[in-house]
Amino acid sequence: MGAKQLRDLVEKQIEKSTNFWAGRPKMTIQELEAVEKFAKEKGKLFEKVFDSPEKIERINKMQNSAL
Amino acid sequence: MDFLDKAYNYNFEGITNEVYQFRFISVGIQEITKIVSISPINKKLNWYSVGFGNLENHESIITVNDLAEINNNDYDEVLATVFMCILHFFISNPDHTILFFGNTLHKHRLYKQKISSNIIILRQYLEISGGKTEEQIKLLEKKQTITRKGKERQRTIREKDLTSLSNSIEIKSIEKYNAAKTSDYQFVLFKLKKDL
């Protein structure tokens, strides 16, 4: 039930978006590269929290117990 | 209107070097092209970081600015779009985790407030956790000049000083997101609900 609801929600949005974006210019390579650079910078800080297998294990446990 | 129905029409631009890219246009006083990026931070645990900001072009230099002073005061619509992009990502990556970390005190508080006020809708699809780090993140005060109703005004933004964490950062705890304790959280995690 929930899975179907989620798919319907995303599909409805994709359909609306497809019509909206039809005929509009695609992003340029420079724009895509700028986004990539931004994304990598954004993630850099938190990459450090996983700098050892022990920390990865500890974080995994913490996350699972919070779910 | 349901929070997620407020989302703008986003376009999934594809994946370049493992970065998922989405684009949408914020509408208001002016049209602003905005970007949502989702990129890996740890592949073993499948943790990804979400970022969003304005796509700007100054003298042919293109950047994504997540400290932009220009906005249409459409925080609900922008955040709903970011969540739609996250849900879109989860359709093909159901076991992954998305980390959200606001870069200014104001935005971080505002977004947590929006998450809290829409928690019932978001929890239909997502497991939400709040996390704390061992380190206290210092704040840098920066002055910005903004134009409102034709008048220039000064404002102060409190940006998180990430260079203060350049040597190390440790996660202290992660707990189920509690709307009454959001001021404690330095980051928020989203995961698709298990039964979806």
Give an overview in words:
The complex is a heterodimer of chains A (67) and B (196). Chain A is an all-alpha fold and 67 residues long. In chain A, 79% of the residues lie in helices and 0% in strands. Chain A has helices at 2-21, 29-47, 53-66. Chain A is flat and about 50 Å long. The relative contact order of chain A is 0.06. Chain B is of the alpha+beta class and 196 residues long. Chain B has one domain: Aminopeptidase, CATH 3.40.630. Chain B has helices at residues 75-92, 105-117, 119-122, and strands at 11-16, 19-26, 32-42, 47-58, 61-65, 97-100, 126-133, 139-148, 151-160, 171-176, 187-192. In chain B, a hairpin with a 2-residue loop joins strand 4 (47-58) and strand 5 (61-65). Chain B is globular and about 50 Å long. In chain B, 34% of the residues are buried. Chains A and B meet through helix 1, helix 2 and helix 3 of A and strand 1, strand 2, strand 3, strand 4 and strand 5 of B.
Structural domain count of chain B? 1
Choose one word for the global shape of chain B: globular
Largest interface: A-B, 46 and 62 residues
Number of helices of chain B: 3
List the topology elements.
The complex is a heterodimer of chains A (67) and B (196).
Chain A: H1 2-21, H2 29-47, H3 53-66
Chain B: E1 11-16, E2 19-26, E3 32-42, E4 47-58, E5 61-65, H1 75-92, E6 97-100, H2 105-117, H3 119-122, E7 126-133, E8 139-148, E9 151-160, E10 171-176, E11 187-192
Parallel strand pairs in B: 4-6
Antiparallel strand pairs in B: 1-2, 2-3, 3-4, 4-5, 6-11, 7-10, 7-11, 8-9
InterPro entries (chain B): DUF6934
Pfam families (chain B): DUF6934
